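Q: Got a minute? One more chain.
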Amino acid sequence: MVKVAHIQDIEYLRQIALLLDRENEKLIKRVQELTEEVSTLRGKSADDAQIEIQHLLEQIQENRQKIFGDSSERRPRLEQKPQEPKKPQCGHGPRPQPLLPVAERTIELKEEARDCGVCGGYLEEMKGQAEESEEITVIERRFALVKYKRKKYRCRCNANVVTAPAPVKLRPGNRYSLDFAVEVACEKYLEHNPLDRQCRKMHREGLNVDPQTVWDQLNCAADILEPIYEALDKRVMQSPLIFVDETWWRLMGKRNKEKRKWWVWGQCGPDAVFYRIRDNRSKKTAREILSDYAGIVMVDGYGVYKSHAKDDVLFRLVHCWAHVRRKFVKAELHYPESTVVLDLIGDLYDVESDLPIWNPLHPEAEQQECLLERKRIRKERSSSIVDGIKDWAIAQRPLPGSSLGKAISYMFKLWSGLTSFLKDPRIPLDNNAAERSLRGIVLGRKNHYGSRSKRGTEVAALFYSLLESAKLCGVDPKAYLRTALYESIKNPGTVILPSDLL
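A: Always. Here it is, folded:
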């Protein structure tokens, strides 16, 4: 028997796929018949049997979509804003590179190539004449062993001997420089390269070092940067609006007796991001994160937040339209009528694109003017769209357990938090800011899989907080980390946030 994995002929594979698809159709019909028969034997009603069949068909269609469909949430809109015709692209030409160092190299004609091909004479250099061109090249990083000689000085009285100061180090006697620790931290938590891979790369570049030594540099740097990490938490909590989300994290290692699946809890403000990594996703941790916060908290539909909000809390909970939209995108596969509500949600986002952007860091007078304009436009345009979404959802009669039924139920369960943006112009439509801030965490999880110890989770949370905050502020993450580490060593207790460098 020939295995499908070994077949190279595209046409042959297409014929096999068609045969399998026909066979699947027959099996689906047979499953429907058997499901009805089983339901009848169990004494269930025809409606119950129909719900089971519909649920089964949705599962089959979803599996087909996962295998053959597009994973993107983008979908065509029937009615879109008229767009201006694009000008024909003629190429952008060479981009200016003001940050690159410039090195000039002169290329001369070799002596043996200076014979004239016409008369046999000698080619002499034309003074001041040359053809100029440029290219961008790469110069590999180099590791070097720097030997310091700290000179000593004394007074003629021989009562005072002074030695030149040593370079700034992570700790006294440390063999690896501060820049080395910054390089390793950025490679792991910014470029997502695990320490083993970094060590192999360093070995190819001439440095023989093991992962434990490299980890020691990160661990030591994290101890020094702890005050800045705590200050970031306070900075986020000072914002009148924060975005909160969570994603899973893996704790590896055979010796670990703790749970393997941990959780990264992220809080995002306008100019800072703060992460905690905990071994649970419970209400207790949500209470720890939002303990004394008094402001607006944008979240998804995870029930822990709503459960915590029922307690005596100072914050106000609002919810995300992007998560609602995802539910209807999933339902559209089986219920084409979902196109109506998806287009309405798209209209909401069209309105938002025309609003001025509110920034709580701007001057108060500028904020008030911006908020008044946002509230006016939303009242004129968004309110009627939200009413249309509600009317459409009430008019639907989907099966209770269907994807459309679940999407409508999910939306109405969060309706109060979803419509809060109509009353408060500070509230955005979605929680995408938190999801964007977790993107680096997810990439790191895919590349280096997680942490090997509880201390590893603490170090990861610290470096991700500092580096992602720098990215959010538009500050070079590596330059910021080096500045923060240098000042923290030179002046213990110094706190430099990325926003301080703007």
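A: Residues 79 and 288 are 45 Å apart (CA to CA).
Q: Perfect, thanks.
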